[in-house]
UniProtKB/TrEMBL annotation:
Residues 12-64 form the PhyR sigma2 domain. This is RNA polymerase sigma factor. Keywords: Sigma factor, Transcription, Transcription regulation. Residues 107-158 form the RNA polymerase sigma factor 70 region 4 type domain. It comes from the Bacteria.
Length: 165
C-alpha cells in the first residue's frame, strides 16, 4: 500500500477514532488530542503497517498504547488535595452536565467512566466500534480469553451500576 493510499484510508477511520477517543476520555479536547497523536504516530510509522492486516485494528492499537501511557503518566503525576482545603473552589470540579442529550446516555457514560480503563476499552471496542473479540484481542495484544473475561466483568459491573442509579 502506497503512502497516499494509507493516508486516505487512515482518514476514513477518523470518525471511528474520534468516537472511541471521546468515549474513553469524555473531554472533547483531550479526545481530539488523542486522535491527533494517534494519526501522527501512525503516519510516522506507516512503513511498519502490514497491508495484509486490518488498518482499523492497527490504529486502535496505537490509540490504546498512547491512552495507556497517558493514564500511567497522569497517575504518577497526581497531586493530593486535602478534602478540607478551604482554598479549593467547588466550581473548579463541577462537571458540565450538558454533554449528553438524555439521562440514559449520561448514566451510561458515567457508569462507563467508573469501569477500570482496561475493561472500559474492551466494552467500547466491542460495543461502540463493533469489533470482534479476535480483533480486540489483536488490537490490545491480549489473549482472547482475557478479552472475554474482562468484557464479562465489565458488563456485570455496568448492570450493577445502572441498576443502582
Amino acid at each position: 500500500m502506497s503512502a497516499p493510499d494509507i493516508c486516505d484510508e487512515m482518514l476514513s477511520h477518523v470518525p471511528r477514532l474520534r468516537r472511541y477517543a471521546r468515549a474513553l476520555l469524555v473531554n472533547r479536547d483531550r479526545a481530539d488530542d488523542l486522535v491527533q497523536d494517534t494519526l501522527e504516530r501512525a503516519l510516522r510509522n506507516a512503513s511498519q503497517f502490514r497491508p495484509d492486516t486490518d488498518l482499523r485494528a492497527w490504529l486502535m492499537t496505537i490509540m490504546h498504547n498512547i491512552f495507556v501511557n497517558d493514564v500511567v503518566r497522569a497517575a504518577n503525576a497526581r497531586v493530593h488535595i486535602a478534602v478540607d482545603d478551604a482554598s479549593i473552589i467547588d466550581e473548579q470540579f463541577m462537571v458540565d452536565g450538558h454533554h449528553a442529550a438524555s439521562l440514559e446516555v449520561r448514566d451510561l457514560a458515567s457508569a462507563l467512566q467508573q469501569l477500570p480503563a482496561e475493561q472500559r476499552e474492551i466494552v467500547l471496542l466491542v460495543g461502540l466500534e463493533e469489533m470482534s473479540y479476535a480483533q480486540v484481542a489483536e488490537a490490545l495484544n491480549l489473549p482472547m480469553g482475557t478479552v472475554m473475561s474482562r468484557l464479562s466483568r465489565a458488563r456485570s459491573k455496568l448492570r450493577v451500576l445502572l441498576a443502582r442509579d
